[in-house]
From TrEMBL:
Descriptive protein name: Tryptophan 2,3-dioxygenase
Uppermost EC category: oxidoreductase
Keywords for this protein: Dioxygenase, Heme, Iron, Metal-binding, Oxidoreductase, Tryptophan catabolism
EC number(s) on file: 1.13.11.11
Recorded GO MF terms: L-tryptophan 2,3-dioxygenase activity
């Protein structure tokens, strides 16, 4: 084996290859053997391939979103807002890409899906831990979501770590405070394992930012980047709900929920409630 340590290998992250082969190929680098042999259909149905690929593509994009959100949160905490903007702009573009995927999935008809739905058993998007990691990174900390991962230590630990970490909104509120805005102490010291709840002092601070854009240009830009992300997230939830309705109507979900009625309810949730509330006040 012609295996050497790559001079530029970054060793602090567990998923990094520290070895490279002299004659490394395109497939080696991208681990295509493993990626392209991971579309195992459980039925003989032609359309199950579409179903698997669309989920895998979404999960890959989610992986990148998590990577960007984590780094953006650190950058905001360090006062490096410009570098956070670059990453947040990328997150929005990825969200827009994932949403395009619904157009492809909507080519699946109810008659086609019903032919392989039973082979999915109780599996459901409910169990997408990367989706929960994104919700947590944005501040929607639902502790109860961890319960289904009790048997899976690695996933449980990742979620636990994300539950305890400040979200991008916590970091943004801390940035408001550092800029001199008065923020209630109980928000600054909030229990990070709980979902963020709307607060009057945060609302006033953001309102002030929007009313005095020239003085707070960076915070204003940060706010708009967060609104972009929430806007795209809601569009994902809406397209998911409508695509599910057109494919399974109001049948119960395989994950045990009421299905579309449940998906309609989650649309009511806000990640950054004050950033939306101030729109009415300005
Ligand atoms: C035919 C396609 C699809 C159908 C019929 C469908 C159906 C559902 C239903 C009924 C639920 C509620 C939970 C349950 O009881 O199962 C759900 C949740 C979920 N689905 Fe899908 N889904 C589809 C495609 C997708 C795709 C492509 C993704 C992308 C990863 C996805 C991700 C999720 C996520 C993350 C949840 C949890 C949402 C939450 O709890 O807020 N689904 N899905
Ligand atoms: N909850 C879906 C099943 C489903 O969509 C699904 C099943 C396995 C793996 C991913 C899925 N996608 C999202 O919920 C249903 O009730 O038909």
């Amino acid at each position: 084996m012609n295996s050497k340590k790559h001079p530029k290998a970054f060793e602090n992250e567990s998923s990094i290859h520290t070895d490279f082969k002299e004659n490394m190929t395109y497939s080696d680098y991208l681990s295509l053997d493993s990626i392209l042999s991971s579309q195992q259909r459980l039925s003989n149905h032609h359309d199950e391939m579409l179903f698997i690929v669309i989920h895998q593509v979404s999960e890959l994009w989610m992986k990148l979103i998590i990577h960007e959100l984590k780094a953006a949160t650190t950058a905001i905490s360090n006062g490096e807002l410009s570098s956070a903007f670059k990453m947040l702009a990328r997150v929005s573009k990825i969200q827009s890409q994932i949403i395009q995927g619904w157009d492809v999935l909507a080519t699946l008809t109810p008659s086609e899906y019903i032919e392989f739905r039973d082979s999915l058993g109780k599996a459901s998007g409910f169990q997408s831990y990367q989706y929960r990691l994104i919700e947590f990174a944005l501040g929607y900390k639902t502790k109860h979501s961890l319960e289904i991962y009790k048997q899976d230590e690695a996933i449980y630990e990742q979620l636990q770590e994300a539950l305890l970490a400040p979200s991008i909104y916590d970091a943004s509120i801390a940035a408001l405070h550092k800029a001199g805005f008065s923020i209630d102490q109980d928000v600054l010291e909030r229990d990070l394992t709980k979902p963020y709840e709307t607060n009057e002092s945060v609302k006033l601070a953001w309102k002030n930012v929007y009313e005095n854009v020239d003085e707070h240009w960076e915070l204003y830009e940060l706010a708009e980047k967060l609104v972009d992300i929430e806007d795209w997230f809601q569009q994902w939830r809406f397209r998911h709900m409508k695509t599910v309705e057109r494919i399974i109507g109001f049948k119960q979900g395989t994950g045990g929920s009421s299905g579309v009625s449940y998906l309609k309810r989650v649309i009511d949730h806000y990640f950054f409630p004050e950033l939306w509330a101030i729109r009415t006040l300005l």
